[in-house]
């Protein structure tokens, strides 16, 4: 029997209702209803990008600073080079302004992998008695300068009696400057910063204003702060790289929570593939990489760097897969010498197994842990 007009309307309504069911079910699940919503996003198993084996976590939380010395993170995230290696695993980026807060996040379980300087890496490892983190790769070398007021300081000997800023008591630049002062034969109390040179611990965000106001005579600082001071009339009196063999010293490492490394080595390896490819891309595309890093800084802080700051700052930083482990050991010795750190046991602070696996697969030379690797 042919369908009547009323029957046809009823059929159309029924079919529309059936078609809407998947949408309704999906909406309910996304709101937290039904059995499908009982698994969190972290429990989901993503498919690898190449259709191969699924990775063991759906999300990896990566921390970094909005600094040019964290160029690997800035560019790798901005260009999607890290996330590309992770397939369906999503990156959750987290920006930090200080090493202690990033270490706290790592130890507290809210961060999985982080880009960070050598001093907080050492402090975090020592305070946890070697239980919380591992250094799994290098990231950057260089990018630290002594910038001074040229009207007050013309030679290195002129620093005596002057006020020189460092970012934080016991941080990487503070330790390096205290060691330099010691080697000059001058004396400074490491706690108060008082002595033949006044070491003024000042946040990098505040240092340029302090310099312009004349409350400090110079600063031993990383980029881009150093180039900001130069743009305000400062003069580079010393590049820290000149104090190191081949001008190489670690300024940024990649660290990982030992728990995350143990539970998700496949995800850690994928991140390292991303950092290695990012560093290679940066070396081959310097101008694009500089623009990419600045775009990420703009996104993270709401303000990019002026060309007169980023143009001189960028070439002084070298991204590297090599953690330059021997230089971290030297920096640790300096902190001990300055009495800012008791002699630490750094055995096991590095685990470069996955990095060297990635480097070997890419046809690149493997790197050393200077005898400080995990057993």
| Strand order, largest beta sheet | 2-1-3-10-4-11
The span between the termini is 82 Å
- Helix/strand/pairing class, anyone? alpha/beta
Beta-strand percent range: 15-25%
Rg: 25 Å
What is the residue-averaged pLDDT? 87
Q: Give the low-confidence spans.
A: 1-52
Tell me about the largest β-sheet. Answer: 6 strands, mixed
For this entry, give a set of tags:
single chain, 375 residues, alpha/beta, six-stranded mixed beta sheet, five-stranded mixed beta sheet, disordered N terminus
Structure description:
This protein has 375 residues and is of the alpha/beta class. It has 14 helices and eleven strands. The chain has helices at 5-30, 71-78, 81-84, 99-108, 118-127, 172-183, 207-213, 225-231, 258-263, 265-284, 286-301, 307-313, 325-337, 353-361, and strands at 59-64, 90-95, 113-116, 133-142, 144-148, 163-166, 198-201, 218-222, 235-239, 250-257, 317-319. The strands form two sheets. Strands 2-1-3-10-4-11 form a six-stranded mixed sheet, sandwiched between helices. Strands 7-6-8-5-9 form a five-stranded mixed sheet, sandwiched between helices. α10 packs across α14 (353-361). The longest helix has 26 residues, at 5-30. It is globular.
């Amino acid at each position: 029997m042919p369908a009547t007009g009323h029957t046809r309307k009823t059929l159309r309504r029924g079919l529309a209702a059936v078609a809407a069911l998947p949408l309704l079910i999906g909406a309910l699940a996304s709101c937290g209803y039904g059995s499908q919503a009982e698994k969190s996003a972290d429990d989901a198993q993503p498919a690898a990008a190449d259709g191969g084996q699924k990775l063991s976590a759906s999300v990896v939380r990566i921390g970094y600073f909005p600094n040019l010395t964290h160029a690997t993170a800035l560019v790798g995230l901005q260009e999607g080079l890290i996330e590309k290696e992770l397939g369906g695993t999503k990156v959750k980026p987290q920006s930090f302004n200080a090493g202690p807060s990033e270490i706290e996040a790592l130890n507290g379980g809210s961060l999985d992998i982080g880009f960070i300087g050598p001093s907080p890496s050492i402090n975090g490892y020592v305070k946890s008695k070697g239980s919380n983190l591992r250094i799994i790769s290098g990231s950057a070398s260089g990018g630290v300068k002594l910038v001074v007021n040229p009207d007050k300081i013309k030679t290195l000997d002129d620093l005596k009696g002057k006020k020189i800023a460092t970012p934080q008591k016991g941080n990487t630049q503070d330790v390096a400057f205290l060691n330099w002062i010691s080697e000059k034969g001058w004396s400074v109390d490491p706690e108060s910063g008082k002595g033949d040179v006044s070491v003024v611990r000042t946040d990098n965000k505040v240092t340029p204003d302090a310099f312009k106001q004349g409350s400090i005579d110079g600063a031993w600082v990383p980029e881009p702060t150093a180039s900001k001071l130069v743009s305000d009339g400062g003069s580079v009196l010393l590049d820290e790289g000149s104090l190191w063999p081949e001008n190489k010293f670690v300024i940024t490492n990649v660290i990982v929570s030992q728990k995350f490394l143990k539970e998700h080595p496949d995800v850690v390896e994928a991140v390292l593939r991303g950092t290695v490819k990012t560093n290679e891309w940066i070396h081959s595309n310097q101008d694009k990489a500089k623009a990419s890093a600045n775009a990420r800084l703009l996104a993270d802080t709401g303000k990019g760097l002026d060309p007169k700051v980023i143009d001189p700052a960028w070439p002084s930083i070298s991204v590297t897969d090599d953690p330059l482990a021997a230089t971290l050991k030297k920096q640790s010795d300096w902190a001990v010498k300055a009495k800012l750190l008791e002699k630490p046991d750094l055995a096991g602070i590095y685990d470069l197994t996955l990095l060297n696996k990635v480097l070997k697969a890419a046809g690149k030379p493997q790197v050393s842990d200077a005898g400080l690797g995990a057993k």
